[in-house]
């Protein structure tokens, strides 16, 4: 199916709203991201924005939570040498780097 301009156009079942370019790449992209190609929703992109913000909040909660747990366990397992600031296991009595008493 050729358009009057000579290029191929998408099949009629996947027609795009007027005002949008009719290239196959645009159609494939809109289908891949889940946008309805036959009509626009009355509320626009608000549900998509809310979902994206929720996903970002969940990702940040996972990252902050894992950092807090890691920091807690690291503080419980290691101590720093007061002279050279090397991390040492809590069971050590002397620094493994400089030999200072912990």
How would you sum up this structure, described in words?
The chain has helices spanning 24-32, 46-77, and strands at residues 78-80, 87-89. The longest helix has 32 residues, at 46-77. It has a domain at 1-40. The protein is elongated and about 80 Å long. The chain has a two-stranded antiparallel ribbon. It has 102 residues and is mainly α.
Write the layout of secondary structure elements.
Blueprint: H1 24-32, H2 46-77, E1 78-80, E2 87-89
Task: Using brief descriptors, characterize the structure shown.
mainly alpha; 102 residues; elongated
Brief overview:
With 102 residues, the protein is mostly helical.
Our Rg estimate from Cα atoms comes to 29 Å
Instruction: Tell me the overall shape.
Output: elongated
Main beta sheet: strand number and arrangement? 2 strands, antiparallel
Record field, number of beta strands: 2
What is the oligomeric state here?
Answer: single chain
Mean pLDDT: 76
Strand order of the largest sheet: 1-2
Distance between the termini: 81 Å
Number of helices: 2
Low-confidence stretches: none
Would you list the SSEs in sequence order as H and E?
HHEE
- Fraction of residues in helices? 40-55%
Strand content: 5-15%
- Helices and strands: which structural class? mainly alpha
């Amino acid at each position: 199916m050729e358009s009057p301009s000579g290029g191929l156009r998408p099949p009629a079942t996947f027609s795009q709203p007027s005002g949008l370019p009719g290239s196959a790449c645009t159609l494939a992209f809109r289908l891949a991201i889940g946008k309805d190609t036959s009509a626009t929703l009355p509320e626009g992109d608000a549900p998509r924005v809310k979902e994206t913000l929720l996903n970002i909040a969940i990702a940040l909660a996972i990252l902050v939570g894992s950092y807090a747990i890691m920091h807690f366990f690291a503080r419980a397992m290691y101590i720093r040498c007061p002279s050279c600031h090397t991390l040492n296991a809590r069971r050590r009595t002397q620094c493994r780097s400089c030999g200072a008493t912990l």
